C-alpha cells in the first residue's frame, strides 16, 4: 500500500480521530499475527470473534492506531460506526487513487480459475495484481485492493457472495472497468431460492461499473445469453455451443493431459492449447482470451500465456502417484462443477478403471436432495467404472447412479470409505475425489496417497 495519513484514512471512512496524532502509514492489518511497526490495526467483529479484544495488543506490537467502533482507552483510535463498512470504504477510496485496467470476475463456478487465467494473460502484457487464492469476500477483496500501487497497470479481482447485496458492495469498492460472469449455477441457492435469483445477485457486479463499461459473459448460459440485447452497455459473449458467440471455441481435442482448440474472434482464428483438460477449462480460457483482446493484446500473445497455465491447490489438481492417477478437486462442489469433474475423469486415458469418490455438496438448502439426484443422473458407466459416495446427502447421488448401471457404494464414515477404497484400488486406476470443502474429502485422498501434494 502506498503512503496515506491517518487523517486521510479518517476522512475516507467517515471516522473521528481520538488520541491519535497524525502520521503516514503503508499498511492496514485485520490480524494481530501480521502486525508490523507503524501499521494501522482494524478491529473487525464477527460471529465468533471481536478484534477489539486485541486492540491494545496490536498497539503494543507497534500499530500506530486502531480503527474501532468505540473509543479504547490508552489506544490511538479512528472511531467509526462499523469497522467492516470502514474496511470497504477505505479500500474503495484507495482503489480510486489508481487507474489500472481493472477486471472484476464473478459467477457460480469457475471464478478462481477464470481469474487466474485472465491474470496470467494480462501479466504478459503489464504488471498485474490479482486476488490471492479466493479472498473474494468483504474482507478479502479490500485486502487485495490495498495491494495496489502506481506500478500496477492491470488488476483482476474475484467477487463471491452468499446473499443479495454482497457483490454490489464489492463492485462499488472495486469499480471494475470490465466485468466477467462465468455462469449461473446452483451455489448458494439455499439463500437465493432460484437460478433467477442467483442471476440477479451476480448482475450486481454492474453496480460499481461505469454505464459504458463492457461485460463479458458465458454465451452458452441461458440466463446470460439475453444480456447481449437487454443491457445498454457493450456485452461480449464466449462459448462452445452458441454459434453467435463473439468468441467461440471450435475443434476441441483432448489428449495427453492437454486440450487444443481454435478460438474464433471477429473473423480471426487462433489455435490455443491448455495444459489441462475439460470443456469448462476451454470456457475459462475463452473468457481470458476475450479480456486479452479487449485489453489490446495480440491473439498469439494471449495463446502463448494460456499455454503456460497450471491448476493450483485442490481445484482439479491431477497428479500421478506411482501407477495411479489422482484428481483432487475438493475445494468446493456444485452440480455444475461435479459435471465438469466427471467430464475430466471420463476424458482421461487410463489402463485401469475410472473411479469416482463423490461427497456432499453443501449449502443447497431445500433443493439439496433434488440436486444430489441430478448429479447421480450425470454419472454414467462411460465416465465411471466404480463409484464411492460419502456423506448423508450423497446417498441420493448413489441411488441415481445405480439406476444408470454404475456400481456404487455409499458411506457415512471416512474410515470405512478409506479402507474399502484401499482394498479396491488396482494398478492403472484413475481416481477422482470431489466434494464441498466442508466435507474435507482430501483427508481420504491423503490417507490413501501419502505422496499427494495438497
Query: Main β-sheet: number of strands, strand sense, barrel status?
Result: 9 strands, mixed
CATH topology of the largest domain: UDP-N-acetylmuramoyl-L-alanine:D-glutamate ligase
CATH top level assignment of the largest domain = Alpha Beta
Q: What's the number of helices? A: 16
What value does the Rg take, in angstroms?
24 Å
Low-confidence regions? none
Describe this structure in words.
By secondary structure, the chain is an alpha/beta fold. It folds into 3 domains: 4-89, Udp-n-acetylmuramoylalanyl-d-glutamate--2,6- Diaminopimelate Ligase, Chain: A, domain 1, CATH 3.40.1390.10; 98-306, Mur-like, catalytic domain (UDP-N-acetylmuramoyl-L-alanine:D-glutamate ligase), CATH 3.40.1190; 317-448, Protein-Tyrosine Phosphatase, Chain A (Alpha-Beta Complex). Helices cover 32% and strands 22% of the residues. It contains 16 helices and 22 strands. The strands form 4 sheets. It has a 9-stranded mixed beta sheet, with helices on both faces. Helix 3 (83-95) packs parallel to helix 6, helix 4 packs across helix 11 (299-306) and helix 12 packs parallel to helix 13 (368-378). The longest helix is centred in the middle third of the chain and has 16 residues, at 279-294. It is globular. The two termini are 31 Å apart. 50% of the residues are buried.
Defining key terms:
Udp-n-acetylmuramoylalanyl-d-glutamate--2,6- Diaminopimelate Ligase, Chain: A, domain 1; single chain; six-stranded mixed sheet; alpha/beta; 32% helix; nine-stranded mixed sheet; Protein-Tyrosine Phosphatase, Chain A; globular; ATP-binding; 454 residues; UDP-N-acetylmuramoyl-L-alanine:D-glutamate ligase; 3 domains; cell shape
Amino acid at each position: 500500500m502506498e503512503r496515506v495519513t491517518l487523517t486521510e484514512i479518517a476522512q475516507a471512512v467517515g471516522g473521528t480521530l481520538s488520541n491519535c496524532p497524525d502520521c503516514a502509514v503503508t499498511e492496514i492489518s485485520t490480524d494481530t499475527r501480521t502486525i508490523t511497526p507503524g501499521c494501522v490495526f482494524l478491529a473487525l467483529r464477527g460471529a465468533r470473534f471481536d478484534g477489539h479484544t486485541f486492540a491494545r495488543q496490536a498497539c503494543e506490537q507497534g500499530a500506530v492506531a486502531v480503527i474501532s467502533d468505540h473509543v479504547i482507552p490508552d489506544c490511538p483510535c479512528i472511531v467509526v460506526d462499523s469497522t467492516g463498512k470502514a474496511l470497504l470504504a477505505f479500500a474503495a477510496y484507495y482503489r480510486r487513487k489508481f487507474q489500472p485496467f481493472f477486471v472484476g470476475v464473478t459467477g457460480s463456478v469457475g471464478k478462481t480459475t477464470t481469474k487466474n487465467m485472465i491474470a496470467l494473460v494480462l501479466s504478459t502484457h503489464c504488471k498485474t495484481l490479482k486476488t490471492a487464492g479466493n479472498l473474494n469476500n468483504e474482507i478479502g477483496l479490500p485486502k487485495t485492493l490495498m495491494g495496489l500501487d502506481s506500478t500496477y497497470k492491470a488488476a483482476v479481482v474475484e467477487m463471491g457472495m452468499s446473499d443479495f447485496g454482497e457483490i454490489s458492495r464489492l463492485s462499488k469498492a472495486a469499480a471494475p472497468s470490465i466485468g466477467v460472469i462465468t455462469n449461473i449455477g446452483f451455489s448458494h441457492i439455499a439463500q437465493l431460492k432460484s437460478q433467477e435469483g442467483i442471476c440477479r445477485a451476480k448482475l450486481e457486479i454492474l453496480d460499481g461499473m461505469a454505464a459504458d463499461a463492457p461485460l463479458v459473459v458465458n454465451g452458452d448460459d441461458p440466463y446470460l445469453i439475453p444480456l447481449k440485447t437487454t443491457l445498454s452497455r457493450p456485452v461480449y459473449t464466449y462459448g462452445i455451443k452458441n454459434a453467435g458467440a463473439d468468441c467461440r471455441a471450435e475443434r476441441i481435442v483432448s489428449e495427453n493431459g492437454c486440450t487444443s482448440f481454435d478460438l474464433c474472434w471477429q473473423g480471426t482464428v487462433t489455435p490455443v492449447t491448455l495444459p489441462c483438460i475439460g470443456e469448462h477449462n476451454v470456457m475459462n480460457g475463452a473468457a481470458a482470451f476475450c479480456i486479452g483482446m479487449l485489453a489490446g493484446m495480440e491473439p498469439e500473445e494471449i495463446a502463448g500465456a494460456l499455454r503456460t497455465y497450471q491448476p493450483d491447490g485442490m481445484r482439479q489438481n491431477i497428479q500421478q502417484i506411482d501407477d495411479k492417477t489422482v484428481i483432487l478437486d475438493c475445494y468446493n462442489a456444485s452440480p455444475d462443477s461435479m459435471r465438469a469433474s466427471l467430464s475430466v475423469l471420463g476424458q482421461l486415458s487410463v489402463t485401469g478403471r475410472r473411479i469416482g469418490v463423490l461427497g456432499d455438496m453443501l449449502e443447497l438448502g431445500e433443493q439439496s436432495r433434488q440436486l444430489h439426484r441430478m448429479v447421480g443422473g450425470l454419472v454414467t458407466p462411460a465416465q465411471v467404472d466404480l463409484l464411492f459416495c460419502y456423506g448423508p446427502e450423497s446417498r441420493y447421488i448413489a441411488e441415481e447412479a445405480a439406476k444408470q448401471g454404475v456400481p456404487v457404494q455409499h458411506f457415512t464414515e471416512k474410515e470405512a470409505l478409506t479402507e474399502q477404497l484401499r482394498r479396491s484400488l488396482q494398478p492403472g486406476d484413475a481416481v477422482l475425489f470431489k466434494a464441498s470443502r466442508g466435507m474435507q474429502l482430501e483427508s481420504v485422498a491423503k490417507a490413501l496417497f501419502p505422496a499427494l501434494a495438497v
